[in-house]
Amino acid sequence: MADQRREDDEQHPPGFGRLGTKVLELAENVVYAGIALFLVVTALVLLVLAGKTTWALVTDLSETPVLELLDVLLLVFIVVELLFAVRTTVEKRELIAEPFLLVGIIASIKEIVVLSVEAAGTVGTAGFADRIVEIGVLGVLVLLLGITSLLLRRKEREPDEGENAPADPETRDRS
User: Fold this and answer.
1) Contact (CB, 8 A) for 135 and 119
2) Distance of alpha carbon 78 from its chain centroid, rounded?
3) Would you tell me which of 11, 15, 43, 174 could form a disulfide with 79, CB atoms 3.0–4.6 Å apart?
4) pLDDT tens, 121-131?
5) Which residue spans traverse the membrane (predicted)?
């Protein structure tokens, strides 16, 4: 009986009944559903914009519509990754860092692409050096975010530490 009471205490904070917890959980789900709805609408609007930009390529074969299309498509990737992050958060009931790292990587790559095209038009000016520095900083950011994502994946593959962790085979053989 004491074990059951302890489990209830861990699931529901003191002074906060089951009804309060259920209300907060419902409110959280409504907020997440709203965020997901706005992200879906944003992705659809961006896809329509990408279609419009693609149609503009028929009449204008310059680099401007191509760059705009790439920019919009990378924004779609960002929105879809954010939608995935919301879905994962709702399913697992915990905040997962990796989708946000991927959003950071995609956003940084998007800026690198835009800055590279802009830098090509400013060769020989003071603005060129600034853009090159920005591209370098963004490149380092992409590298760091990628390493962080790799380390997170490696950490997820490791067995859990603590009482419920599986015994180490070397330790088990020595006993």
Assistant:
1) yes
2) 7
3) 43
4) 777 787 788 88
5) 30-49, 69-88, 100-120, 132-152
For residues 36-56, one letter each, b for 16 or more C-beta atoms within 10 angstroms of the residue's C-beta and e for the rest, the string is eeebeebbeebeebbeebeeb
Contact residues for 81 (Cβ-Cβ < 8 A; gap 6+): 99, 102, 103, 106
Distances (CA, A) of 37 to 32, 91, 151: 9, 16, 32
Integer Cα distance of 17 and 6 in angstroms: 14
Going from N- to C-terminal start, the domains of the chain cover 25-94, 95-157
- Which residues, including other chains, have CB under 8 Å from residue 14's CB and lie 6 or more apart? none
Q: Provide the CB-side half-sphere exposure for 111 (13 A, CA).
A: 17
- Whether the CB-CB separation of 75 and 108 falls below 8 Å is answered with no
- Long-range contacts of the stretch 139-143 (C-beta < 8 A, 24+): 139/112, 141/104, 141/108, 142/105, 142/108, 142/109, 142/112
Residues listed for the chain: 175
The residue among 118, 149, 152 whose CA lies nearest residue 132 is 118
